[in-house]
C-alpha cells in the first residue's frame, strides 16, 4: 500500500491519509463590525472543495486570537463566540467527508496590520483599517514598516491566556486538531529569534529566555485542549540568516522541549522573519529540516515546501523523512490532488457519492 494513503493516528484522532492541507490565508473576512474575522461563504467553499477532494487533514488558515493579531484586517479570528459559531458549518462538512478539521491559532506581532497581498501587502495605518503592531522589541520588520510597540511584561503575561481562549473556542467549533503558529516571523517566532528579540528581561537573551513565551503559550493551550486531541506547533526551522538568527540546531533543541510540553507534531517550515534573505528554494527544499527533527528527537513531523508531485510526496514518507506532507499552493491549484495521487500510486481516498462517476 502507498505510504501516502496509510491512516495516521495521533492520540485518539485517526487521520485517513498523509495528504494534509497547510494553512494558507485567504484574506476574505470582514474587517470591521460584528462580522469582523467571521468565516464567510468563500471559506466554506474553499475548505469544502479540498475535503471533497480527499484531503486527510485540513488546517484552517492563521486565525487570530486577538483583533490586533491579524496579519491583515481581513483575516479570520477566533477571539469571540460569534466567530467560533460560524466555523461549525465548516467543521461539520469536513467531518462528513471523512476529513479531520484543524485550525492554526496565531498572532502576527510586528507583521500585523498589512494590506491584502493582491493589493500590495503594504502596512495599513491607523488612518485606514489598521492598527499599531506590537512585538517583543521595537524593531520593524522592514523598511517602510512601522516600529512596533514593545510588549510590556503585563501584556506578555496576558497573551497565553488569549491563545487558550482561542483553543477552547476552536474545540466548541468542532476542530479536532489545533496548531500554534510559531513560524514565519510572526509573534511567537519573533520571540524565538535573536534577530527580532532584543529584550534584556526574562523573555530575551538566552535560548531559554527566548523560548519562554512559546512554551507558555503551548502550556496554556495544552491545559484547555483535551488530552485525547493532538496539538501541533508550526516552526520556521531557520531564519536563513548567516548570523544572529534562529537556526536548524535551535529547532532540534526546541523540538525536544515542545515534545515534553505536550506537542504531538511539529509542522516544519522556514523563513519569514527577515526580508530579502537568500533561500535556496526548490522541490522539497525544507524536507531535510523535518527529517532532522524526526531523526534526532522522535517527535512526529510534517514536511512542507514545494511538494507537488505524488511520487515526490511518497518518497518523503517512504524514506522516513516525515510522517505526513502538507501541501499549500498545489492544493490551491488542484483541490482534488489527493484523489489524483491515489489513482497514480494505487491508494484510495473517500469519494463523495455524488462523484461516484469519477472513480
Automatic annotation (TrEMBL):
CDD domains: OYE_YqiM_FMN
Keywords from the named record: Flavoprotein, FMN, NADP, Oxidoreductase
Cofactor: FMN
Gene3D superfamilies: Aldolase class I
NADH:flavin oxidoreductase/NADH oxidase N-terminal domain ranges (all copies): 4-344
Key word Coiled coil present: no
Xref: SUPFAM superfamilies: FMN-linked oxidoreductases (SSF51395)
InterPro entries from the UniProt entry: Aldolase_TIM, OxRdtase_FMN_N, YqjM-like
Pfam families attached to this UniProt entry: Oxidored_FMN
Protein name: Oxidoreductase
Annotated organism of origin: Streptomyces spongiicola
Amino acid at each position: 500500500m502507498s505510504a501516502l494513503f496509510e491512516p495516521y493516528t495521533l492520540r485518539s484522532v485517526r487521520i485517513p491519509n498523509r495528504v494534509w492541507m497547510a494553512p494558507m490565508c485567504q484574506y476574505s473576512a470582514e474587517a470591521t463590525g460584528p462580522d469582523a474575522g467571521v468565516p464567510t461563504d468563500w471559506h466554506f467553499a474553499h475548505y469544502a472543495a479540498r475535503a471533497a477532494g480527499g484531503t486527510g487533514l485540513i488546517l484552517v488558515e492563521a486565525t487570530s486570537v486577538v483583533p490586533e493579531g491579524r496579519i491583515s484586517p481581513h483575516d479570520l479570528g477566533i477571539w469571540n463566540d460569534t466567530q467560533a459559531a460560524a466555523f461549525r458549518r465548516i467543521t461539520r462538512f469536513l467531518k462528513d467527508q471523512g476529513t479531520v478539521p484543524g485550525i492554526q491559532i496565531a498572532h502576527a506581532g510586528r507583521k500585523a496590520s498589512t494590506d491584502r497581498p493582491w493589493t500590495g501587502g503594504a502596512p495599513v495605518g491607523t488612518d485606514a483599517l489598521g492598527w499599531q503592531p506590537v512585538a517583543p522589541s521595537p524593531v520593524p520588520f522592514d523598511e517602510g514598516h512601522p516600529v512596533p510597540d514593545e510588549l510590556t511584561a503585563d501584556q506578555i503575561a496576558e497573551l497565553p491566556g488569549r491563545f487558550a481562549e482561542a483553543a477552547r473556542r476552536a474545540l466548541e467549533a468542532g476542530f479536532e486538531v489545533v496548531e500554534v503558529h510559531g513560524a514565519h516571523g510572526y509573534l511567537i517566532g519573533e520571540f524565538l529569534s535573536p534577530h527580532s528579540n532584543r529584550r534584556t528581561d526574562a523573555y530575551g537573551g538566552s535560548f531559554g529566555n527566548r523560548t519562554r513565551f512559546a512554551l507558555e503559550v503551548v502550556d496554556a493551550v495544552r491545559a484547555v485542549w483535551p488530552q485525547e486531541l493532538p496539538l501541533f506547533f508550526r516552526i520556521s526551522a531557520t531564519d536563513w540568516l548567516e548570523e544572529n538568527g534562529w537556526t536548524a540546531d535551535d529547532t532540534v533543541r526546541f523540538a525536544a522541549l515542545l515534545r515534553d510540553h505536550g506537542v504531538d507534531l511539529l509542522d516544519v517550515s522556514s523563513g519569514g522573519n527577515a526580508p530579502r534573505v537568500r533561500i535556496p528554494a526548490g522541490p522539497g527544499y525544507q524536507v531535510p529540516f523535518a527529517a532532522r527533527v524526526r531523526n534526532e528527537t522522535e517527535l512526529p513531523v510534517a514536511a512542507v515546501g514545494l511538494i507537488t508531485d505524488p511520487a515526490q510526496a511518497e518518497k518523503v514518507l517512504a524514506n522516513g523523512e516525515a510522517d505526513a506532507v502538507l501541501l499549500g499552493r498545489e492544493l490551491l491549484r488542484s483541490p482534488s490532488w489527493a484523489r489524483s495521487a491515489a489513482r497514480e500510486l494505487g491508494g484510495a481516498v473517500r469519494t463523495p457519492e455524488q462523484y461516484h462517476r469519477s472513480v
